UniProtKB/TrEMBL annotation:
<protein>
    <recommendedName>
        <fullName>G-protein coupled receptors family 1 profile domain-containing protein</fullName>
    </recommendedName>
</protein>
<feature type="transmembrane region" description="Helical">
    <location>
        <begin position="227"/>
        <end position="247"/>
    </location>
</feature>
<dbReference type="GO" id="GO:0005886">
    <property type="term" value="C:plasma membrane"/>
</dbReference>
<feature type="domain" description="G-protein coupled receptors family 1 profile">
    <location>
        <begin position="62"/>
        <end position="310"/>
    </location>
</feature>
<dbReference type="InterPro" id="IPR017452">
    <property type="entry name" value="GPCR_Rhodpsn_7TM"/>
</dbReference>
<keyword id="KW-0807">Transducer</keyword>
<dbReference type="Pfam" id="PF13853">
    <property type="entry name" value="7tm_4"/>
</dbReference>
<keyword id="KW-1015">Disulfide bond</keyword>
<keyword id="KW-1133">Transmembrane helix</keyword>
<feature type="transmembrane region" description="Helical">
    <location>
        <begin position="294"/>
        <end position="312"/>
    </location>
</feature>
<keyword id="KW-0297">G-protein coupled receptor</keyword>
<keyword id="KW-0675">Receptor</keyword>
<feature type="transmembrane region" description="Helical">
    <location>
        <begin position="167"/>
        <end position="190"/>
    </location>
</feature>
<dbReference type="InterPro" id="IPR000725">
    <property type="entry name" value="Olfact_rcpt"/>
</dbReference>
<feature type="transmembrane region" description="Helical">
    <location>
        <begin position="82"/>
        <end position="101"/>
    </location>
</feature>
<dbReference type="GO" id="GO:0004930">
    <property type="term" value="F:G protein-coupled receptor activity"/>
</dbReference>
<dbReference type="GO" id="GO:0004984">
    <property type="term" value="F:olfactory receptor activity"/>
</dbReference>
């Protein structure tokens, strides 16, 4: 065959070009990734399916109940803090849905593959929602700081009409973060093997599959994540330190206890979200067995715990839920 002879001559006289052509051929065949998941034991997979399904449904119902409660209560809806809380619940529902659907399908069917396009979409939405959540938590900490440390100027600074602008800002920040991550990963060539040691597509695992030197890309990707995490962490830490110092002499009165309860709920929630993510992302791209556990915690478990934390520690939310049950003719 003439074409076959041409390829042989090209391989003989231009070995570098031949290797490049073979690499491009392999890259063109890289259309799917295999997710290794959590376990290959069928009984354990079925048990995980039941547990993850229960957590996912609890997350959807709990967060949806908070969203409905805030939307149906005029007093809560006019408060920036509860407006942001409802948005946090929406993010939690969306974030858990991005990975949970695929995880449950794989556990049930034992077909743990995902297309290249599906992998990139999953990666994009996870970082879009995760980045937006980081910015939202920082904004909620600033809101709490203004309400407690500058109560006289709070109504002017954080009035209800500024909420849409702040809403657009943290979503834009999440979009910029995820778009940057996606562009950096999409530039990498993939030519096999295609096994991801996780139950969803994430940047560290996908980058390790690239068949080229990824050192520069890893530095850029980590710089992107580290900068956002560091800035948000410093703002959160500074805000809550000032809040705790301000509340130090007010623990005995009702207002001080109420503010402390609200801030403690924020602190618990921030810790549950930030600590696992810091463990996974704020270090070089190396694998640890605890990565999967940390990922399960902030993807599956944390969205379940957030509604519980707020309903147990926030008196206004509990009262609003009672009013909602009365309005819907449900038993108290």
């Amino acid at each position: 065959m003439p074409g076959h002879g041409t390829d042989e001559c090209s391989s003989l006289f231009f070995p570098a070009q031949a290797r490049h052509n073979e690499l491009r051929k392999n890259m063109s065949n890289q259309t799917t990734f295999t997710l290794l998941g959590l376990s290959h034991s069928r009984p354990l997979q079925l048990l995980l399916f039941v547990l993850v399904s229960a957590c996912y449904m609890a997350s959807l119902l709990g967060n949806l109940f908070i969203v409905v409660t805030v939307l149906m209560d005029p007093d809560l809806l006019q408060s920036p803090m509860y407006f942001f809380l409802a948005n946090l619940s929406l993010i939690d529902m969306a974030l858990s849905s991005v990975a949970a659907h695929k995880m449950l399908s794989d556990l049930l069917s034992q077909r743990s593959t995902i297309s290249y396009g599906g992998c990139m979409a999953q990666l994009f939405f996870l970082h879009f929602l995760g980045g937006s959540e980081m910015f939202l938590l920082t904004l909620m900490a600033c809101d709490c700081y203004m309400a407690i440390c500058h109560p006289l100027s709070y109504a002017e600074t954080m009035h209800r009409h500024r909420c849409p602008g702040l809403w657009a800002t943290y979503w834009a920040g999440g979009l910029l973060h995820s778009s940057t991550q996606l562009v950096l990963v999409a530039w990498l060539p993939f030519c096999g093997p295609s096994k991801l040691d996780k139950f969803y597509c994430d940047v560290p695992q996908v980058v390790k599959l690239a068949c080229s030197d990824t050192y520069v890309m890893e530095i850029l990707i980590m710089s992107n994540s580290d900068l956002i995490s560091l800035v948000c962490f410093l703002v959160l830490l500074g805000s809550y330190c000032v809040i705790l110092v301000t509340l130090r002499g007010c623990f005995g009165d009702g207002g001080g206890r109420k503010a402390l309860s609200t801030c403690s709920a924020h602190l618990i929630m921030v810790s549950l979200i930030l600590v696992p993510r810091i463990f996974v992302y704020l270090r070089p791209f190396s694998s640890f067995q605890m990565d999967k556990m940390a990922s399960i915690f902030y993807i599956i478990i944390t969205p379940v715990l957030n509604p519980i934390i707020y309903t147990l520690r926030n008196q206004e939310i509990k009262e609003a839920m009672k009013r909602l049950r009365t309005r819907l003719w449900l038993p108290c």
